[in-house]
Amino acid sequence: MIDCLQSLAPTFVSATQGMGNQQPDGLQDTSATATPSDAGQAQGDRVALSESDQQQIKKLKQRDREVRAHEQAHMSAGAGIVQGGASYTYQRGPDGQMYAVGGEVKIDTSAESDPDQTIRKMQQVKRAALAPAEPSGTDRAVAAQAGKVEAQARQEKIKIEKEEQQEEKNEDAATSPTGAVPGRRPYSTEDVGLMLNVAV
Length: 200
Description:
Order of helices and strands: EHHEEHH
Structural class: alpha+beta
Number of helices: 4
Helix content: 40-55%
Largest sheet: 3 strands, mixed
């Protein structure tokens, strides 16, 4: 889930139902039931897991994979605007392992000083917020807010461009001579000069 730095508080999606049983990288498969002979070996605190515990572990593993993939999608699409890494909320499973059940990535959603930079940044914020396969409600809210900021930046850009055009017109008007009357050419019927015949 995306959490913008200045406004949205983190919220976490509840675990999904009907999850598969694939293992995430780096997590131990503790879904197998321990045999009675295992209980007294090196890990004396290991106990046999009930079938419901095994099902819960499978769900937690699936949830852990989903959460990590979700946050990784945010971080990949938000490179440059992500503030730090992903933070996770964990739940301890019946096997004693910690599984990620929620997470967030903080991104900078503040406007830039230049409208063009703000437009580019908000487009990236939207891409980062909507990058996961299933964006959360918070992700969608961040994307919507970024869209509003982008629209405001576009309006500001249009306003600045109009002001610049007006300034150019004013400068052009100021540099051209005001009140000057262009030289008048004589009409064809007017005498341009007199010819004098002087006899000597």
